[in-house]
Recover the amino acids of this structure.
């Protein structure tokens, strides 16, 4: 049984590594920071404020259900962005360490903290190469969060996350995200690549926890994303997003611009995406938190 469990986890880790290298995940820190810096100014601005508040409230309610009380707690927010969760948690009495690779995102958080002084320590850092011992993070936090962030790209990053918590962890990501038709068409007809209809960032962390003996509390949400954008702006966003791990030549950019113009007879491009997201919370001591990754990939307890 124990040998089979090791085989199961090692096979899952190998599958996870292959999925990370499928071309949809940007592995270069510089490009990742640049991509999010470009998006930082307008990030989430197109989302209704009431919807954003409800989303944050739903997450806080979920954390409460998992047994978390923010008052007097220490929280590490990995890939914090502009403070979507850091700010409400700090307002509720938590002492928050907010970490992100994007200086642009952190500038927005700093501006918010200037207007509303809160116990938030802001750190510009990539979680992929962070030294949690040098940073003083190991076993220091009551809650460690990784919400809809590319920061957790592999098992090592997830283990680092758990090593920083002495109680709870929270993780959320896409369970399934059908790409908008334009992105599918661009990948297949212009770039000659396989279309990517799924972003399944939730599956591998959940399966890893399950096989390791954890029993995370899980919630699955479904929504439909509909957006109307000027065709030129939509084309520029597509070039930026699809090209975040490569450099398009002028001819390719022109083809993408032409696609959006032709798909927008009234000058407005209408995008649609069917989206499923998952979130989970678990106690790190539920299976044992003092664990190390061996060269073979198995987790020793």
């Amino acid at each position: 049984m124990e040998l089979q469990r090791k085989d199961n986890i090692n096979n899952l880790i190998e599958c996870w590594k292959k999925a990370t290298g499928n071309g949809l995940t940007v592995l270069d820190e510089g490009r990742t920071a640049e991509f999010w810096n470009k998006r930082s100014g307008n990030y989430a601005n197109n989302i209704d404020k009431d919807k954003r508040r409800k989303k944050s409230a739903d997450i806080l309610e979920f954390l409460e259900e998992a047994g978390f009380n923010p008052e007097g707690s220490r929280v590490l927010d990995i890939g914090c962005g502009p403070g979507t969760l850091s700010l409400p948690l700090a307002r509720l009495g938590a002492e928050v360490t907010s970490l992100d690779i994007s200086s642009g995102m952190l500038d927005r958080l700093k501006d918010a903290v200037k207007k509303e002084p809160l116990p938030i320590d802001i750190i510009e850092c990539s979680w992929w190469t962070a030294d949690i011992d040098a940073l003083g993070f190991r076993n220091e936090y009551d809650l460690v969060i990784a919400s809809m962030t590319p920061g957790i790209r592999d098992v090592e990053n997830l283990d680092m996350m758990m090593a920083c918590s002495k109680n709870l962890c929270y993780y959320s990501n896409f369970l399934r995200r059908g790409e908008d038709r334009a992105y599918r068409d661009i990948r297949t007809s212009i770039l000659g690549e396989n279309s990517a209809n799924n972003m399944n960032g939730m599956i591998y962390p959940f399966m890893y926890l399950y096989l390791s003996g954890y029993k995370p509390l899980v919630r699955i949400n479904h929504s439909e994303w509909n957006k109307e954008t000027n065709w030129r702006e939509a084309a520029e966003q597509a070039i930026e997003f699809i090209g975040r791990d490569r450099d398009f030549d002028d001819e390719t950019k022109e083809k993408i611009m032409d696609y959006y113009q032709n798909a927008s007879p009234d000058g407005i491009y209408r995008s649609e995406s069917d989206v499923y997201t998952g979130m989970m919370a678990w106690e790190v001591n539920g299976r044992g938190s003092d664990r190390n990754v061996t060269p073979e990939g198995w987790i020793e307890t």
Summary: The beta strands are 74-78, 95-100, 120-124, 141-147, 165-177, 217-230, 268-283, 292-293, 299-300. Residues 182 and 260 are 8 Å apart (CA to CA). The chain has a mean pLDDT of 87.
